[in-house]
Write a structure and sequence with these properties.
The complex is a heterodimer of chains A (152) and B (77).
Chain A (H helix, E strand, L loop, with lengths): L3 E4 L5 H7 L7 E8 L3 E2 L2 E10 L1 H18 L4 E7 L1 E4 L3 E9 L2 H18 L2 E7 L2 E5 L18
Parallel strand pairs in A: 1-5
Antiparallel strand pairs in A: 2-7, 3-4, 4-6, 4-8, 5-7, 8-9
Chain B lengths: L1 E3 L2 H7 L3 E3 L5 E3 H11 L9 E4 L2 E3 L4 E3 L4 E4 L6
Parallel strand pairs in B: 1-7
Antiparallel strand pairs in B: 1-2, 3-6, 4-5, 4-7
The chains are: A alpha+beta (152), B alpha+beta (77).
């Protein structure tokens, strides 16, 4: 199975969790991100995610590499769903496993933060009275100089 | 040269691919200039350029056959 995947199907959380269990890893941290009804006072009816799939999977894998460097011994698996998602559905699962729990917790948070910075996946919120693509113009790959970012 | 576009930019243009004239080589900076000339409707759109599925800066040289994409601010998770 792929440990870094973008899928149109419902995410099988346990599959990714189980993939990182082995006799060295005493801790497995599994984070799931869900579709929320309320964001800053606006009610979301559903979400639509779009991805540049081959690049997104490469960048997810890069996050796994970054984690291996920062926390040797930590293993990572990430799966992000795209397409139409309803409230409470799982949009993303991030699993980190480690010999001891501290590294797994830290690495898991790092993975989600990085995902929101460098992985080409976009979310569109569909409200009762409109819709909008969500983007944070501050979040770019850390290796890219802000001044180099075009589009003005 | 074909350029893949996504999300809000794709929706604005009504197509997943835009084209610009380019020779064998063009820098990312030149490519952005060309886009702004040919597609004034994208003025104000913020994006980074990815070449062969990796982010690249302005001085990077794009060659014919490379896969180019405009990456607007991401919002996964």
């Amino acid at each position: 199975m792929k440990l870094f995947e973008v899928t149109e199907d419902k995410i099988d959380v346990l599959k990714f969790h189980d993939a990182l269990v082995n006799s060295h890893q005493g801790a497995v941290v599994t984070f799931t991100g869900h579709v929320r009804e309320w964001t800053k006072g606006t009610r979301t009816v559903h979400l639509e995610y779009e991805a540049y799939v081959p690049m997104a999977e490469k960048m997810l894998s890069q996050i796994g590499d970054e984690i291996s460097e920062k926390w040797p011994g930590v293993k990572t698996a990430i799966c992000h769903r795209i397409g139409k998602l309803d409230q409470t559905e799982v949009a993303v699962v991030v699993v980190t496993s480690s010999p001891h729990r501290q590294d797994g917790y830290h690495a898991n948070m790092y993975a989600v933060d990085r995902l929101k910075e460098i992985v080409p996946i976009w979310k569109k919120e569909i409200w009762e009275d409109g819709e909008e693509w969500i983007g944070d113009s501050r979040h770019y790959h850390s290796s890219i100089n802000e001044e180099d970012i075009n589009g003005n | 040269m074909e350029i893949k576009i996504f999300a809000g930019i794709k929706e604005k243009m009504g197509t997943p691919v835009i084209e610009i004239p380019a020779g064998d080589e063009i820098t990312v900076a030149e490519l952005k200039d060309r886009i702004h000339i040919d597609y004034p409707e994208l003025d104000g759109e913020v994006f980074q350029v990815a070449v062969n599925e990796a982010f690249q800066t302005d001085d990077f040289v794009v060659k014919s056959g490379d896969v180019v994409a405009l990456i607007p601010p991401v919002s996964g998770g």
